[in-house]
Amino acid sequence: MKHVYQGHGIKGIKYHWSQVSVFTRQSKDKQFVLFVDCPKAVVDQIVRTCLSGSSRSVGLAGHVTSACRDPFIWHALLIGGLETEYESDYWGLRDIVRKWERERHGEPDFPLLHDLGRHLIHAKEIFEVATNTINSIVHHHRSLYDEFQATGMIAAEEQKSRQKLFRIIQEKLYISDKDMTAKQARATSLNERLHNEINLAYHVVTQKSNQLSINLASIARRDNATMKALALIGVLYLPGTFISGIFGMSFFNYNPQGNNNNNNSGTDWMMSDKFWIYWTITIPVTIFTVMLWAMLDETVEMYKYFMNKVKVTLQDKWNERPRSNRQKDEEEASTNDPSMMLKV
Fold first, then answer.
1. Which residues cross the membrane (predicted)?
2. Cβ pair 74, 24 in contact under 8 A
3. Which regions of 86-169 does DSSP assign to beta strands (E)?
4. Which one-letter DSSP state was computed for residue 248?
5. Among 176, 191, 202, 131, which Cα is nearest to 4's?
6. Which pLDDT tens digit goes with each residue over 43-76?
């Protein structure tokens, strides 16, 4: 059995395993029964059943003193006691799953949810094994009773009491089998509920991510509109700035009429005959800058393509080598590399 319970803190799922074993030895006039690693609550319940009976084992208490007549009476008593433990294990898992169902508004902890799914898988396996074990006990109990009848080991005066005890044990095992089957179905349903919570958490996270992407796209569109506005303003002002920059150079001189201090013969506008120097320098530098940018961009792309080809070629050559040689080279590299030695 696997006992899962909610511990303290956020990462607080605790569990422990317990395995109950029973050893019985039957003789003609007595029976030896040994319970190993049996929970104290189950032991107390079996003792109470032996003394006065219990709600889960009605009809068995009166036959415990003559248990040597049917060795399977102890199996029925043990199963009746363990049903409470299995029920407690199921509700421990159910409470944890229900806690996550009620706290959907919080941030999902996917590792913890998947870890809880692992415990539910174990619970389904445990209930299935328990159901198969009960079915096996029912089968062997019926086989033993048939063998007793076929071999005449049951005295005539004990036929009715043996038959009554057989029916009581069979009925108890049948009820336990149905109860365990129901627990297995509930564990399966609980596992599906957990999967539903995990899928919902994934959808919620995906929806939040999509909403964040939409918000980022909206911000990007606003930024794009702002950049377009700035670019339009730049386009509107750039021609005037360029023209004013040209006419503001020392190649041009403007003097209003009546201001002849510069000996320009009274003209209002003069342009230097060296203005061609500006164009001689500007045009080649602009062309050189554009060509240099194009060459650098192409060089980077060619370098990336060349390095990828070299990497693929070396990988193919390495894979073509025999496996023994590759292992030998890897061992030598790890021996000569101090960092690899430290890792080892």
1. 229-255, 275-296
2. yes
3. none
4. T
5. 191
6. 777 777 665 544 444 455 555 555 556 778 878 8
